[in-house]
Structure formats: structure tokens, C-alpha cells
Structure prediction request, 327 residues.
Amino acid sequence: MRHTVSVLAFDGMTPFELGTVVEVFGLPRPELTVPWYDLRVCADRPGPMRMAGGLTLTADHGLDAFAAADTVIVVAVPDVRAPVPADVVAALRAARANGARVVSICSGAFALAAAGLLDGRAATTHWRYAAELRRRHPAVRVTPDVLYVDGDDVLTGAGSAAGLDLCLHLVRRDHGARVANIVARRLVVPPHRDGGQAQFVEAAVPAADAGDPVAATMAWALDHLTETLTVADLARHAGMAPRSLIRHFNRQAGTSPVRWLITQRIMASLPLLEDGTLPVETVGARVGFDSPATFRHHFARVMRTSPSAYRRTFRTRIPDTSQVRPV
Prediction:
């Protein structure tokens, strides 16, 4: 029998949330030599549902079919601040009790957490929801800076597009790298993406406040990133002793002045890398790193990828293809 995959749909969801799962598991793939999946689109109440954009979806299966599948997937919840319906929680628990592999994508992690399936486990969700997931479910070890977490029988993915990464990972687990690579090629996406959600999080730049010496010092430091800055320099600008600055800085920014400064330099390097004009070594120097090796080390720690890999992914300049011969 083919491996059954069920995905939960709900009224008001976006087509893309559902589409990532349908694209990977729902299309027939006769070119492959392995039996493909049997996908079932389910809902708490089978029938027509409205989707964002004015579309209508009809789910043929209910929660009984959802819980009976070999792999069950929740791609999102309608509202991360609202309770997950009790019948959905019961279906997830039943699926897990039946030995199903349970998967969430994006805010779908809130449904798995409500069912208790993430307690004591590492899990991820969209970076925008990570703090809320941690607050509502303290027993979950929220890991916000990855594309997905493979917990063997329970897997969680980040934002909606990261659902493709997780679905391809499931194919790789089930059928091997060769089959996953073929599917990725059909989708025109890389079989495996380097890095994590840190690449997609917009860094907040603090606003200068004349009454807040720490915020004012942050703004001043941003204007002097290319200079050699020490904690003593920052403390002098803030009119504080270094120890006092560190204490206030940690309370306000959630990190040390040195780590904050490194992160801001990394953030400042991103537009330069995306532009694609300067060599990587020059970019590091432009934002205040004293050597290319230091830049690469800190970039990899913060962004979970290399400067060169980031540039390949996010480069905004259009390459000159006038000398490229068509194939």
C-alpha cells in the first residue's frame, strides 16, 4: 500500500500554505520508480471552504481520515492567539497514538503543541511566532533560527516557504537523496538550503532617545561601525561605567554590547553582499571587521551560512548574460 499523507485545511487559509504539501505529495510522478504518496486533504468538517484570494476549496475527508494517515501535516492554524479546536487536538493525539509521523509547518506548530506532542522537544515555527509559542507552551524547546527540526517521529518547519524544505526532507528520508533531488529539480528549488531563518529576520534598529543613554549610544555606534569600538568607547559615550553599560545593555537589548555590535555589523553587510559589486573581503572591512576570517566566522555564527552563500541566494544585481550562449 502507498504511504498516506493527510493535510489539514481550514476556512480562510491561503492557497500557498496548502499548495506546498500538495505539490510535493499530491502530484503523480510516473517518472519515479518508487510508489508515490496517497494525499488526502482533510478538514474538521468536510465540504467547501473559503480560501484567501476568493478561491473555494472542497475537502473530501474529515478528521477520522486525517488521524488515520501514515503522515499527518498541519500547515497553519487560523489564529496563533486562539485556542486550537478540541477535535483537532484529539485527532492529532489519535494520529500519534496510531504511530503516525506528525508534521507542522509555520504556525501549525501551535496545534502540535496544544496536543502535547512537542513537550520536551526542540521545535520551530515562523520567526514571527517563536516568542508566542515559547510563552504559551514553555515545555517546548523553541528553536527559532532553523528552517526545520527533525524530531524523527515529530517534525516542525518554519515559515510557509520552508514547508518545501521540510517536505523534500521527508521525501529524502522515505526514498533517498536521488528521488528527493528529482522532485526538487521539478520544483526548480535547491534540494537542500543552507542556513536558517536568521537570514530572513529583519533586524530592529533602535531609535535614538535623548533620555535613554543606551539607545542613544546604539544609534551613535551604528554611525561609527567602521571604527574600532570597544565597551569602554560605548560606555564613555553613554556616560556610564563599563559594568553599568553592560548591565543596562543586557537588560535593554537582551545581549552584550560586543555581541550586539557584531550583529549590527553583519546586518550592515547584507545590502553590500546583495548588491554583488564588492568582493567579500572588502565587504567585511567596510562594516568594521578587522580581517576576512573574522568576518566569515561571525557571519556564519549569526546567519548560519557563509557570506558567499548568502550572496548567491540574495544577490540583487542582474548578471550580464550577453555573452552567455543559449543551451
